[in-house]
Structures are given as structure tokens and as C-alpha cells.
Design goal:
It is built from 13 helices and no strands. The longest helix is centred in the last third of the chain and has 24 residues. It is globular. It starts with a helix and ends with a helix.
Length: 217
């Protein structure tokens, strides 16, 4: 398991070096907070130094990073990393409020979770605040996620040839789901929610929850 954690950290660092902020989610999930903060600090220093240096800002890494700040998928990764790393706020200098930046596309879907960006953020924020009044809202969000995931997996498994080779596009491991489960495992009484929605014979359905348990349980 530790080897898997190290691979997640390696992949996260590699993504960030390529200017892709999705690496922040991988590092936050794998406990690579120090690596993420070091990269964040270094990137801010480079950006500050490049303000008066036209050649410096043309370095591919900086250009890719700047483009990432315009991508909803990459901004969502910043939001996820912040939620997982509270009270730290990586890339706060570049994205003061990632959800506000995502608001124009808040009706878009988050991966294959079945949740909109707005719904995903609402559930994550309710968990993060530890709001006991939001338990049913959290449970309903997880039910939507699990039912949507089940539909994808059943459809994928119907194509036995590609399922055996794991080439079907359905996400067996859904990192967006892992983030939500991880948040709830760390900050809530999760036993009040999961038994009734995970009581399924489809083992692959449980993968995000099991991974979150391993990472944060």
C-alpha cells in the first residue's frame, strides 16, 4: 500500500511539473502536502520574478500552468486540494476562490459522479463545515453518486471483452468520488451514511470508498 501512495505522489509531482493542477488532488489524497506546498511556493516565486521578464513567462511550464487556471477541470482540482488540506490553501495567490472561478460552469458535471459542480461543492462544503443539519443532504449526494456509478459499471461489464482488459471508459476508480469519501471519513460520522448505499454485491462499486478508507480511514 505504501508503494501505491508513493506512486500517487510521484504522479502528482509529475502532473504539476507539466503545469497540470490535477496533480494537486493526487498529492493531497496521498499525503504529499509538503511536496505540494514546495511546488506552490516555487511557482509563486517564479511568477513574481517573471513579471518583468517577458522571456521567463514564455517558459512552457509557466504557460501550461497559466492555461490550467482557465480550465474547469484543473480549477476543480485546486478546490479539491484545498478541501483536503485545510487550513492550507495551495495556489491561493493564483486562485483566491476556486469555486467562484467555477461558478459560470457550475451546472456542468463532475466526471462520472452524477453531480453538478454546484452540487459537488455543496456536499463537500457541508462536510467540511461539519454541519450536522446537512447529514441528509450529504447522504442524498452519496446515493446519487453510487447509483450513477452502478449504472456505468453495469454497462461496462456488459461488454465482457473490454471489461476483462479494463479498456472500457467507465471509471473503476473515480478520484472525484474518492475525494468526497475521504472528506467525509475524516470529518464526519460516516457510519450513519454508508451501510445502506454500499450494501451491493457489485464489488467494483465500492472501489472509491475502499481507497478513501485506506488513505484516511
Amino acid at each position: 500500500m505504501e508503494r501505491a501512495r508513493k506512486l500517487l505522489i510521484f504522479a502528482g509531482k509529475l502532473y504539476l511539473e507539466l503545469g497540470l493542477l490535477s496533480g494537486a488532488t493526487l498529492l493531497a489524497l496521498a499525503g504529499g502536502n509538503d511536496d505540494l506546498i514546495r511546488f506552490d511556493t516555487r511557482m509563486q516565486q517564479h511568477f513574481n520574478a517573471a513579471q518583468d521578464d517577458a522571456d521567463g513567462i514564455r517558459e512552457p511550464r509557466f504557460l501550461y500552468f497559466r492555461e490550467s487556471l482557465r480550465s474547469p477541470i484543473q480549477l476543480l482540482a485546486v478546490l479539491q486540494a484545498r478541501l483536503l488540506m485545510r487550513p492550507l490553501e495551495p495556489f491561493g495567490w493564483a486562485v483566491p476562490n476556486p469555486y467562484e472561478s467555477l461558478r459560470p460552469v457550475s451546472g456542468g458535471m463532475v466526471g462520472s459522479t452524477g453531480l453538478t459542480i454546484e452540487g459537488y461543492h455543496r456536499i463537500a462544503d457541508t462536510i467540511d463545515r461539519g454541519n450536522e443539519d446537512g447529514v441528509e443532504q450529504i447522504a442524498e449526494g452519496f446515493r446519487t453518486l453510487v447509483l450513477t456509478r452502478r449504472e456505468y459499471l453495469v454497462a461496462a461489464m456488459a461488454d465482457e471483452h473490454h471489461w476483462r482488459m479494463l479498456l472500457h471508459p467507465a471509471e473503476v476508480v473515480d478520484l472525484d468520488a474518492v475525494v468526497l469519501f475521504s472528506l467525509d471519513l475524516r470529518r464526519a460520522a460516516h457510519d450513519r451514511i454508508y451501510p445502506d448505499i454500499l450494501d451491493e454485491g457489485l464489488e467494483a462499486l465500492h472501489a472509491p470508498f475502499r481507497i478513501a478508507q485506506w488513505l484516511f480511514g
